[in-house]
Amino acid sequence: MIEVELRVNGTAHRVELDPRVSLLDALREQLGLTGTKKGCNQGACGACTVLVDGDRIAACLALAVQYGGREITTIEGVAHPLQRAFVRTDGLQCGYCTPGQICSALGMLAEADAGMPSAVTEHLAEPRVTLSSAEVRERMSGNLCRCGAYNGITDAIREVAGARPGVSS
Amino acid sequence: MRPFEYVSAPDVATAVRAISDAPGAKLLGGGTNLVDLMRQDVERPTTVVDISGVPLTGVDELPDGGLRIGALVRNSRLAAHPVVRARFPVLAQALLSGASGQLRNMATVGGNLLQRTRCLYFVDASAACNKREPGSGCDAVGGFHRGGAVLGASEHCIATHPSDMAVALAALDAVVEVESVRGTRRVPLVELHRLPGDTPHRETELEPDELITAVEVPASTAAATSRYRKVRDRASFAFALVSVAAAIDVQDGAVAAVRIALGGVAAKPWRAYEAERVLTGARATEAVFREAAEAELAGAVGLPGNEFKIELARRTIVATLRQLRVEGGAA
After folding, report:
1. What is the nearest CA distance from A21 to chain B, expressed in angstroms?
2. Cβ-Cβ contacts under 8 Å, B115 against chain A
3. What is the ipTM of this complex?
4. Contact at CB, A119 and B93, closer than 8 angstroms
5. 8 A C-beta contact, residue B41 and residue B125
6. Quick one: pLDDT at residue B331?
7. How far is B105 from chain A (nearest CA, A)?
8. Fold of the B5-50 domain
9. Which residue of A80, A124, B73, B180 has the lowest C-beta tally within 10 Å?
């Protein structure tokens, strides 16, 4: 067992971990933060997306021992207009993928703010990102929604993106 | 997942000593491939050496205009780097077409190069696979092999290398820097990965105790007009059926310099030397592009489930060159 300090949503937790434990399982089973969901458990579905120092990652492929001392944000630590936008646009049906969608979208908006291009960005050297529907869909391709609420999800994200300085929709 | 000893290495010296001291050790970077394969019981390291805290995270410009990329630079950071976007667009595009936003934030440059094939029978510990279990046979040859290789494969293995980034780096003449307790050495990227032959379990030229520390990309006149074109079963978050990384310098309608590499078709990023030979010095016309593509795929061998890749590869080469000719202003 290895002792690690996990800093989650502004609170530090000292936990004893088997090094095999994923960040996802540590959050859910040891810290009781079950908002982060386990879907495929192999990095394909995005349900386990959390933010680490602001970057979105798949917590199922992260060994918890690697993330000691980092600032981890889960859905329990998020209060953002994007959540209301998801409700308004019907960006969910069953809701299982929603915590991952929200965390992923917040990470994605920060990437866009920083001018990061995507695979569909036409002019790579352009420092300003325009979050068209195609851009949002490409950038959110790591989050699956088996209810198929993609139109609402895309609308919610573009609505929030358009209200921000520096990013246009 | 089987138990393992976890070692966190703060620097290169500690990391190379740890993998040298523990046969059966594996290096852990972003974990996107290794953690998954350990969970599937495909990878069974006795020791995991975590190098995610080793400070190999710089992207530095070299005096000649090239780039030196630290092995632990995250894929997303490298793709977003202003110099990569402006001078090596093929590399930025290849990185951005791989995996998803979450995985690109985790995956490292070194890990991307050393990731394992996604062949269905390799990742299924109950299937026959000469790569995973030498001598056990290959279930892919008579099975579902849509993703399988058409160039450089053998009867023992038809696995493909899954990296997009490596295909761009192969076209850019990148060199990999490697460290071990014996010192430092440099390996051209096109020589890093091996073709399967009858030893598909030996995937690279690296020794088990060697650590990739950096990748260097030399300056090139062709790189400014370069592109990565990826053909896959979904528009996003899928591995390539065929991909083409190409860079071309057209002067007065003739090809002054050209670099092409193919992905999704072989056990390694496939540098298209035959196509380059046909193109170099020739007119940059559609007919010559097709002739070059034909020359490169002349030795391709398909199976019922993947022979479509041969014509797909030819057409993707032609389409990529055609697009670059327009972008380079030589249309």
Report:
1. 9
2. none
3. 0.97
4. yes
5. yes
6. 45
7. 6
8. 3.30.43
9. A80
